[in-house]
Write a structure and sequence with these properties.
8-stranded mixed β-sheet, 6-stranded mixed β-sheet, 37 helices
Length: 885
């Protein structure tokens, strides 16, 4: 471009339809101007150019522009220097003339223009359309279509709260100039691809709901190695599908992180929030592109910005709890106390209904009711002790009126009355929360929602680790800390591995917790060591698998909360302290820091080492078994494995969980997983006895009863399995299956089937427990009645059963002769094989067919019975056998 007085028109990077339409409109205002894109456009925009309207634009590549020839820079839909790419270098020139057309609110770093047209319209092109109309500049139908497309997109087809009267007037004018609504509809309501469906699902699954200053804000994130086009479109779809008021979507694509933010409410100004991330936008839509930060760091910074920026709701209608909990004046103090407990509140409104209206009579607090009950006034009506003439507010009362009335009247609750109807109440706690949030906004020390300062018992255990751990494990732990430091994260080895280190027990099941993005860490570490990786984005976890099969479990530091008793956990990013607090027992809350500068520092927030020393199993909080009843089974398993004792409070809480029957809400698979781990212990009998002590065997099935016979069966099974393990037979088997067969031995086929169905066992396992077990019992009875028998008959009886079933038979039988026979089968008969082959039979002139199998079985029987030893013996035997036919 050699023009010495060049006018160029540009917009922001990642240009959308409004930016495109605004540049087209500006081009008509500035004759001879050139349109220059500063960066990439959405994929659908590129397709739009190629296929249809490219002829409308006088465009040039930024690389073709001689910057010294530019006399005038026209900015549309932006005035942020960070959003115009390489063209921002032009701003250093004092002789440059700058014209700006924008609809975004003022921001601290805005470019100042020689000429500016800035109004809060829904779309910038609406402003420019109005100017074209005023100047009488002609617009073709294709131009009108492009401009109208920009209005439709940036106003959400006139659904966004940012839409103004100017947008409707501009759209109407463009329609009069021939704008094609079919084209607009096809581009705005475009179909979603299968890849986008997958990403959208990931976004929905990863959504975290934050209550910030009384406003619900959704933050979600995805991670992909490739650039995803139309990310903003997916965010728009998610808002529609999930009916969200405000969302911040983060996407790591390659080496960059993209942020797209949308809001439907005035309290969340996404433009003001995103500016802290180096982006821009307006109140209802904003975006940012971030380099040199991890996803976790970006989310951390975003949350800081949200706590600084989100405006609290200030009207009574927004703050109140509705509907209000009320009682009549004649309700007794006892019943009022029950209501307070049921709803977990500290005050009640006293009211009556009269002529369709709510007549507010007064209010009464928990303290007053408790004192009345203490004085044995349980049956006295609350009207005798309630506070009368309470203050109240209307739904549109502001925060100052609410504050004044609560303080002046010294009320715990403030009724909200609308047209003689009690619509809600505001508590002193509600008011305090709002005032605290306001205070937070005026201070520099804002809460850090992801990290908390570590305040824990700590000590350096590096020498102890060197003594107890192999060189390989130590090297792995050091490498983990190093990689975590590279991505500005902190790494810890936690849980059972650390617990067993101090119990002097071998344990190479390593659990790593990352303060930050655990999945990003896992990918980087796996790449460094040449390992495979499986990720689970929903829970922020990953499994790293080394070439030799060694595994590491990695998790992002998280806390869990439960929607109702026995529910699966909801996961949120958190600090290491909160991550450890979500664990089952204090003994599993130890953590060792791995980052290089603090490698080997033991962290103990919850006195875990004290409980290990005292050999005590204790929960971390009193609702632990309410939230996850499976922890009861773990408590018993750990108690027996380590020879510990369950603490008194923990024992009482177990009994409460059994009494309240929280186990009925558990899925069978979760319950069975815990029972199976008990049955996989070296000696599960003591744990089964403890389950019975707490009445937990009935959770498996009411018909399972612990008695002397069952205990003897478990002890017998332990002896049998120990004997079998000492044979060093190279064949794997599942120990828990043998013990489970023992556990349900007294159950008939129908009950066994119900147990298997309740535990959601596979068809293969159901077959073992409900069919093959009864066949094994039948075989066992036959052996007890018919021994001794020939080896061939013994082999034929037992060879049809799996190892676990034969071991169960050996444990379940009492006669020594039967145990000896099964032992003989395992040690002498089971792996007996013949030497003769089908080729040998064919060489003998025998035609192939069913006779071969009959001959082979006869040879095997003869060998089992000690009649044959060599191949020659077998050949001679076959000749004699065949001669009979």
């Amino acid at each position: 471009m050699q023009d010495k007085n060049l006018t160029i028109i540009t917009t922001h990077v990642n240009a959308d339809f409004d930016a495109l339409a605004s540049m087209l409109a500006a081009q008509k205002l500035y004759a001879g101007s050139v349109i220059v894109f500063p960066g990439s456009q959405e994929k659908n925009l590129r397709n739009f150019f190629i296929k249809s309207m490219v002829y409308l634009f006088n465009m040039a590549d930024v690389k073709e522009i001689v910057f010294s020839n530019v006399k005038r820079l026209v900015l549309v839909d932006t005035r942020q220097p960070s959003r115009i790419g390489r063209l921002s270098s032009l701003l250093k020139r004092s002789d440059l003339e700058i014209h700006i057309y924008d609809h975004h609110p003022d921001m601290a770093n805005d470019i100042k223009g020689n000429f500016e047209v800035i109004r809060p319209a829904g779309a910038t092109v609406s402003i420019l359309t109005g100017l074209l109309k005023e100047k009488g500049i002609g617009i073709s139908s294709d131009e009108a279509t492009v401009m109208c497309l920009g209005i439709y997109e940036d106003t959400g087809s006139f659904n966004f709260s940012s839409t103004t009267e100017e947008d409707f007037i501009a759209a109407a004018y463009l329609l009069s100039k021939g704008a094609n609504l079919n084209i607009i509809s096809n581009l705005i309501e475009r179909e979603i691809s299968s890849e986008q469906v997958g990403l959208l699902n990931d976004m929905i699954q990863a959504a975290t709901f934050y209550n910030i200053n009384g406003i619900e804000v959704v933050v979600t994130s995805i991670s992909t190695d490739n650039y995803v086009s139309d990310f903003a479109f997916l965010v728009h779809k998610m808002i529609q599908m999930e009916n969200l008021n405000a969302i911040f979507a983060l996407a790591r694509m390659g080496e960059k992180i993209y942020v797209v933010a949308r809001s439907r409410i005035n309290e969340v100004d996404v433009g003001a929030v995103v500016i802290f991330l180096g982006g821009g936008g307006h109140t209802f839509a904003a975006a940012a592109t971030i380099k040199d930060m991890t996803l976790a760091q970006t989310e951390h910074k975003l949350l800081e910005s949200l706590y600084k920026t989100v405006k609290p709701k200030r009207l009574a209608n927004d703050l109140m709890s509705s509907p209000p909990i009320m009682i009549g004046p004649d309700v007794t103090c006892r019943d009022a106390n029950n209501a307070l407990t049921r709803y977990n509140i500290n005050a009640l409104l006293v009211a009556e209904k009269a002529a369709g209206k709510d007549e507010l009579l007064g209010c009464i607090t928990r303290q007053v009711i408790e004192k009345a009950i203490y004085h044995r006034l349980d049956d006295i009506p609350v009207k005798e002790y309630m506070s009368t003439e309470p203050a109240s507010v209307a739904p549109d009362a502001d925060i100052f009126e609410i504050q004044q009335k609560i303080i002046d009247s010294k009320q715990r609750i403030l009724p909200v009355i609308d047209n003689d109807k009690l619509t809600g109440v505001i508590t002193r706690t509600d008011l305090l929360n709002i005032l605290v949030r306001q205070s937070q906004q005026t201070t520099a020390n804002l809460p850090d929602p992801l990290r908390e300062p570590i305040q824990a018992r700590s000590r350096n255990v590096i020498n102890f680790m060197n003594e107890r751990l192999s060189k390989r494990i130590l090297d792995i732990l050091r490498d983990i800390g190093g990689v975590a430091a590279e991505i500005d994260c902190r790494a810890y080895v936690v849980g059972g591995f650390v617990r067993d280190l101090f119990l002097y027990r071998s344990n190479e099941d390593i659990d790593i917790v990352i303060e930050g993005d655990g999945i990003a860490f896992a990918k980087r570490y796996a790449k460094k060591v040449g390992a495979r990786i499986n990720t689970y984005k929903k829970f922020g976890t990953a499994v790293i698998i080394f070439p030799d099969g060694f595994k590491l479990d990695v998790a992002s530091a998280r806390m869990e909360y439960y929607k109702f008793p026995a529910a699966l956990p909801i996961v949120e990013m958190s600090s290491i302290r909160l991550d450890l607090f979500r664990r089952d027992f204090t003994i599993n809350t130890l953590a060792i820091q791995l980052t290089p500068e603090k490698f080997g520092i033991l962290i103990d927030f919850f006195a875990a080492r004290k409980d290990i020393k005292e050999k005590a199993i204790r929960v971390l909080h009193n609702l632990s078994f309410v939230e996850d009843p499976t922890r009861v089974f773990r408590a018993i398993r750990f108690e027996q494995r380590f020879d510990f004792s369950i603490g008194k409070l923990t024992s009482r809480l177990i009994k409460n969980a059994v009494k309240m029957n929280f186990f009925k809400r558990l899925r069978g698979k979760r319950l069975f997983a815990e029972l199976r781990q008990i049955l996989e212990e070296e000696n599960p009998a003591p744990a089964i006895i403890r389950l019975n002590d707490y009445g937990l065997l009935s959770v498996i099935h009411p018909d399972i009863e612990l008695n002397k016979k069952l205990i003897e069966l478990f002890n017998s099974a332990k002896k049998v399995l120990s004997w079998y393990d000492l044979l060093f037979i190279e064949e794997s088997y599942k120990k828990w299956i043998v013990y489970f067969l023992v556990l349900i031995k007294s159950c008939n086929k129908k009950i066994s089937g119900r147990i298997c169905t309740g535990f959601e066992l596979t068809l293969k396992l159901k077959k073992v427990f409900c069919n093959e077990r009864f066949a094994a019992d039948k075989c066992l009875l036959w052996l007890e009645l018919n021994l001794p028998v020939k080896n061939s008959i013994l082999h034929k009886q037992l060879s049809v059963f799996k190892t676990e079933l034969i071991l169960y038979m050996m444990a379940a039988t009492k006669p020594k002769s039967v145990k000896k026979a099964i032992s003989h089968y395992f040690t002498r008969l089971r792996y007996t094989d013949i030497l003769i082959t089908g080729k040998d039979l064919k060489a003998m002139g025998l035609e192939s067919g069913p006779i071969y199998r009959k001959i082979m079985q006869a040879v095997l029987d003869a060998r089992l019975n000690g009649k044959l030893k060599t191949l020659n013996d077998e050949m001679t035997y076959v000749k004699k056998y065949v001669s009979r036919f």
